[in-house]
Amino acid sequence: MVQIVDRWNTAYFHGRLSTGVLAELRQLADASPDALALADRAFRLMRTARLAPADVSVFTAWLIGFAMPRTVPSAWSGTVPPVTMAGRHRTIDEYVARNPWHRPAGQGVFVDIGCGFPPFTTMETAQRLNEWRVIGVDPSFGRYLVYDKQGTYASYDDDLRLRYYQAGNFDPDQTATRKRFQQILDRLLPKLTGDEVADEDGRIVCDPMRQYETGNLELRGGGIGEFTVDGGADVIRCMNVFMYYDHPFRQKALAWAEDLLRPGGLFICGSNWIDSVASRYTVYRKEQCGLIAKEFAFSIDNIRPIELAPWYGLHDDYLENLANAHAVGTIREDTPFRRRFDKRLDMLLAKLNMCPRDANGYLGHAPDEMPAEERSRCSSVLASQLDDEGFVAEAVDVLRRSGRHAWRNHVGHIAMRPVTPPPLAPSSVL
């Protein structure tokens, strides 16, 4: 593993990664092949985005070395983990509410594909679009939801197979956590006679989807191509799904979406993270000639991210990652803008005490004492401040000067007319 980390450093960063970054990457010593491929792909995307070695933070390297192996499908018996959190799609909800492309005739129908469980984001969509009919769909809806006494949950399917448990991405002792949930399940399941059973150390809820449904929100099990909606849909949101699949799967999904959408309806796909940070998404509209890509957009924190999310994708041909990396590379190639942006971002990071630069000019780690929730929301704070200070508008101007049709969209993201990006350069290491 030391050898592969050194090869990554040489091949993608001219041997200039910091010792702190290299130390965190060596946590991949026992990683699965898909985790190693994911890390390699992340580094190639960083190179496409013109991210300098000194701008790879120790925190980002920790996410790659520690958290990444815990999110790949091989860590969850080959299934896609239904990672979800409150507020993740808040900006996308606002995009739909005020979008320039489509207004439903009568009650709007919103389908949230891959909504995850618990369906926090779909619940928030139903609240924001309270006059719409909202349908959350996911193949990972489990039969049983098991809570420990701290309120952390685990989801089990009909045959009592663990599908996912909360905080699985950052758990330092997955074996102990899985054992704890299994003990709760074994202890309480024989006592379950209705919808729920509990004791002082845990709780089990049977068919938990029902407790989340409301007057305008319904939940269904299934995936792309496995269900339909009578009368069609006005908006289909498919966030954080395509990053697990290849381009042929995407093409089949787009064909299915075209059939399901009403005339003028929208298909929104891409990826993001907590509080809509690291957003990158494409908006398609159903027109007479088919499903047409109208807009590709990304949040400004992608220009020099500290999060793992902008680099996460299980296939080289994941379109939103490619489009994002190439657009960011174009922006960072503009030296005057890059210098102003990086200088201001460094000041904001130092103020937050998040990944501050060391004496050698390298970005550091998150403080040990910083709560995980606060750490995860730093990028949201940064994105809002940078937009307020006009950096989104400046980035748009850079793209325009490069020949792109670009604008600041109505939710504050850098937007452009979609173009097919060049393919990702092949691996130099694996």
UniProtKB/TrEMBL annotation:
Species of provenance: Kibdelosporangium philippinense
Identification of the protein by name: CheR-type methyltransferase domain-containing protein
